[in-house]
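Lab notebook page, bench 4
Experiment: in silico fold of construct C2
Operator: M.H.
Input chain length: 83 residues
Purpose: comparison with the prior construct
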Amino acid sequence: MAVRDLKYVLKQSYESSRALIIDINNYQNAPPLGYAVNDAKEIKDILIGELGFETENVAYLTDSDATKSNILLFLRLAIGYIG
């Protein structure tokens, strides 16, 4: 499925939804990727620009920022918002 097809799959309103996008191009034990950044940025742009996600509700973690502690922090904040 193409990234642009997401807007047709996700049809309801997402103004109060949360999203975590993790983009890793530079792995420790594998050759670097050249496309993850572009794919992740496109997903972020679609969520905000086309599906109505609030900018502050989309976390975007890249390479060295995509740590276990940052991922867990986002999940705790998202659950706190929901609960």
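Observations: Strands lie at 19-23, 58-62. Residues 3-82 form one domain.
Next step: discuss at group meeting.
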